[in-house]
């Protein structure tokens, strides 16, 4: 779905991403791991243009992503789940799910409603649909945020450290929903610190450090026999 | 000296009641103008276009650096003269005049708009950046994200401070007396000079403002408390 060649991102003089080249195939679950400040989140945010890359090329479904490409179309098809959920506080859970489908996808109100309720059932929160986000726990809010992204019927989902802001006992429910999505064949790119999740669910694990992709491969290889000393060092600290 | 409140009340209060409608008109239109202008200035100053930012900043400094009373007098007396002068330079002979209430509303709206724009701007900036990002990530455009997601949250947060500006504006309508708007102060001045009931008249005037501003502040407080929950 994505073909990324020598992608770079600078903030002023600070070079956060230095030449990232990657493919992301349809149906694949890619987990990106690495120390903080390694550029993982920035890279993820370049994929839906929340950050504009300063060098390199990015192809989405064969089309080059640049000023001419319809950014909104790309974002409709590539959903995102944030670390801090970012639900809309003035809307109920249901409205959070139906707002963009009605406004952007021109979905009929009833249809958007039905879809939203189905998705809430899927994440186990149908009983909360008339509540406001602030009354929900972090884990519940993140599951609503996943449902909100799914309500746009995306072809792919980006997850930016989806469990990092959660209390440890709430992480499990969110990961469970993500595992279910992966099993259904959703294309997912997940920036995460949950090594257990990456090992179990990922088709491919990418280790990033200092703005480079240091190593990539199937989880067994990355976690059991990493080639690169920096990967080994990082895993020794987190596992 | 014998105070004659009854006589003053009989004659002055009906006149003040008429003055109330002027005060209410000036406040409502002035406040609407101020809110609109405040939002436009706030959004303009948050834009990336340097010319717009710079111009608005200068305008803001100009308004905040001069007293409201001077601005009112300027709009009422000087602006029409300037317009006539400019028209004259192009060979037209005009006699533009601004109605006193219009001048008053413009002055209040522009002055308050500038102060309110700072509150609105700060409030837009205080809405979590994640709200914009979430909206963009769902496919909303830049302006949809601003007007549909960020602005409602920003305005909701500042309803109490906008309410306080409203109360202040009610009191500042008294300055409109100097541009010949027949509001409460001007009516009282006229009445006092005719009847020499100076103490009585101005006491009633002060009470008249309290009758508006105390309930209004109370309503603002109630709304503030409602929003907190």
A few lines on this structure:
The complex is a heterodimer of chains A (239) and B (229). By secondary structure, chain A is α/β, with parallel strands linked by helices.
Shape of chain B: flat
Q: So what's the CATH class of chain B?
A: Mainly Alpha
CA(first)-CA(last) distance of chain B: 55 Å
Largest interface: A-B, 23 and 18 residues
Q: What name does CATH use for the topology of chain B? A: MetI-like fold
Helix content of chain B: over 70%
Radius of gyration of chain A: 18 Å
Order of helices and strands of chain B: HHHHHHHH
Strand content of chain B: under 5%
Task: Calculate the terminal CA-CA distance of chain A, rounded to whole Å.
Answer: 31 Å
Assembly category: heterodimer
Task: Please tell me the total number of domains of chain B.
Answer: 1
Discrete helix count of chain A: 9
- Which H/E pattern describes the elements of chain A? EEEHEEHEHHHEHEHEEHH
Classify the secondary structure makeup of chain A into a structural class.
Answer: alpha/beta
Spatial extent as radius of gyration of chain B: 22 Å
Q: Give the spatial strand order of the biggest sheet of chain A.
A: 6-7-8-3-9-10
Average of the residue pLDDT scores of chain A: 93
């Amino acid at each position: 779905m994505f073909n990324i060649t020598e992608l770079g991102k600078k903030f002023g003089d600070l070079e956060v991403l230095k030449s990232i080249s990657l493919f992301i195939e349809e149906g694949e679950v890619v987990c990106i791991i690495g120390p903080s400040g390694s550029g993982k989140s920035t890279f993820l945010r370049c994929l839906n243009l929340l950050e504009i890359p300063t060098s390199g090329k990015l192809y989405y479904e064969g089309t080059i992503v640049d000023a001419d490409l319809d950014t909104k179309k790309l974002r409709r098809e590539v959903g995102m789940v944030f670390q801090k959920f970012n639900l809309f506080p003035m809307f109920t859970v249901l409205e959070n799910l139906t707002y963009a489908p009605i406004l952007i996808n021109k979905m009929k109100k009833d249809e958007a409603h039905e879809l939203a309720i189905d998705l809430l059932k899927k994440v186990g929160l149908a009983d909360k649909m008339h509540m406001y986000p602030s009354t929900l726990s972090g884990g519940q809010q993140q599951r609503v945020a996943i449902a909100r992204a799914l309500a746009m019927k995306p072809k792919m989902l980006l997850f930016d450290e989806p469990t990092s802001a959660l209390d440890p006992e709430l992480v499990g429910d969110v990961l469970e929903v993500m595992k279910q999505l992966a099993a259904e064949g959703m294309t997912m790119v997940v920036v995460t610190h949950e090594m257990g999740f990456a090992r179990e669910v990922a088709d491919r694990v990418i280790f990033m450090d200092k703005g480079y992709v240091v190593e990539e491969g199937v989880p067994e290889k990355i976690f059991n026999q990493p080639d690169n000393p920096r990967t080994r060092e990082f895993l020794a600290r987190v596992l | 000296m014998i105070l004659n409140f009854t006589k003053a009340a009989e004659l002055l209060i009906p006149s003040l009641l008429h003055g109330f409608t002027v005060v209410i008109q000036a406040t409502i239109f002035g406040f609407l103008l101020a809110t609109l202008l405040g939002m436009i200035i706030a959004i303009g100053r948050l834009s990336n276009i340097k010319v717009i930012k710079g111009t608005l900043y200068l305008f803001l400094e100009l308004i905040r650096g001069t007293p409201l009373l001077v601005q009112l007098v300027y709009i009422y007396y000087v602006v029409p003269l300037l317009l006539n002068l400019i028209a004259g330079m192009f060979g037209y002979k005009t006699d533009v005049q601004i109605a006193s209430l219009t001048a008053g509303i413009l002055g209040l709206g522009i002055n308050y708009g500038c102060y309110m724009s700072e509150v609105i701007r700060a409030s837009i900036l205080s809405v979590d950046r994640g709200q914009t990002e979430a909206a963009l990530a769902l496919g909303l455009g830049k302006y949809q994200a601003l007007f549909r997601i960020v602005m409602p949250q920003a305005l909701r947060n500042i309803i109490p401070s906008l309410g306080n500006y409203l109360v202040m504006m009610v009191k500042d309508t008294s300055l409109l007396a100097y541009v010949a708007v027949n509001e409460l102060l001007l009516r009282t001045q006229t009445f006092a000079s005719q009847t020499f009931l100076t103490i009585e008249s101005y006491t009633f005037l002060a009470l008249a403002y309290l009758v508006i501003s105390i309930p209004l502040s109370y309503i603002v407080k109630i709304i503030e408390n409602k929003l907190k929950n």
